[in-house]
Recover the amino acids of this structure.
């Protein structure tokens, strides 16, 4: 059975991305409000290039999305279209599991009823035979 | 019942779910055709469905209402687009307003169901394709999360009982 939500390497990327304190801070900041890379760079005691690198790591882990707006690069939080889709499809899969189980329960009730009817017929047959003998 | 496979295509927003049942295709078909049988399994956990209308013919309309644990109502509609008894069924499934009319902006889920019978067992494949993410979110909000958590909780309880036995 194929159960895939996030691939292992995707999970690894997310954990690696969030293993760094600056990157966690960037995620928190852009979640509160979208920001340009240069605005973010101004918040940290490191070069623009270093911040840009951190943003790229977050982007690869699909935790943020970057969009060019004029000369600025704007960083958005990414509740993750993709991740969200995976999560929701997983719920839908659970729903189908539940439905399949319910169908199966109904079908096994059928079989129970069939057996009941068989027993009923057996009894009638027996009674008929006994009736014929007497 | 055996779940054979379940495959999520994230980009196409499609779920392909395959399960096998110990019954004829004819019998499984009835579970789709007869609204009284359909409503016994259609609704999510804790959200049983009631089919008020089920015109099981090509182009036919169905209306159902799912009722949540707090009595909240989740109305839905179907339009059956293709019927080949007892092997193939296609329909559109979407959210309805309180009058049972489709909520157009929500779009619909396209469902293709195929039944294949082999040696008295029936393999049922359902392919569900969502229109967009919002629709999935809405659907997911509708008791599914809550219901699953409850169901999982019950399973945990049963397992715990096994352990203590």
């Amino acid at each position: 059975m194929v159960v895939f939500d996030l691939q292992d390497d995707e999970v690894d990327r997310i954990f690696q991305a969030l293993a760094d304190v600056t990157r966690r801070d960037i995620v928190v900041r852009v979640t509160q409000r979208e920001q340009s890379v240069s605005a973010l760079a101004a918040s940290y005691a490191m070069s623009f290039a270093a911040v840009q690198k951190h943003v790229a790591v977050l982007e690869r882990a699909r935790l943020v999305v970057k969009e060019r707006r004029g000369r600025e690069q704007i960083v958005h939080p990414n509740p993750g279209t993709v991740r969200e889709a995976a999560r929701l499809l997983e719920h839908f899969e659970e729903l189908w599991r539940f439905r399949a189980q319910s169908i199966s329960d109904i079908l096994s009730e059928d079989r129970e009823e069939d057996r009941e009817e068989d027993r009923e017929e057996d009894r009638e047959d027996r009674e008929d035979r006994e009736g014929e003998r007497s | 019942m055996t779940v054979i496979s379940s495959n999520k295509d994230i980009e196409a927003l499609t779920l392909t779910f395959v399960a096998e049942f110990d019954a004829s295709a004819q019998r499984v078909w009835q579970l789709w055709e007869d609204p009284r049988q359909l409503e016994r399994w259609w609704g999510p956990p804790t959200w049983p469905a009631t089919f008020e209308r089920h015109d099981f013919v090509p182009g036919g309309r169905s209306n159902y209402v799912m009722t949540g644990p707090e009595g909240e109502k989740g109305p839905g509609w179907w339009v059956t687009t293709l019927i080949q008894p007892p092997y193939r069924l296609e329909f559109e499934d979407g959210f309805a307003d309180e009058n049972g009319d489709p909520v157009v902006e929500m779009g619909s889920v396209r469902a293709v169901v195929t039944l294949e019978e082999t040696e008295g067992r029936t393999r049922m494949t359902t392919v569900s394709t969502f229109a967009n993410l919002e629709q999935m979110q809405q659907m997911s909000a509708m008791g599914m999360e809550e219901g699953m958590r409850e169901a999982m909780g019950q399973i945990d309880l049963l397992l715990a009982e096994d352990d203590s036995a």
Q: What stands out?
A: Chain A has a mean pLDDT of 80. Chain A has two domains: 8-79, 82-134. The first strand of chain A starts at residue 35 and ends at 36.
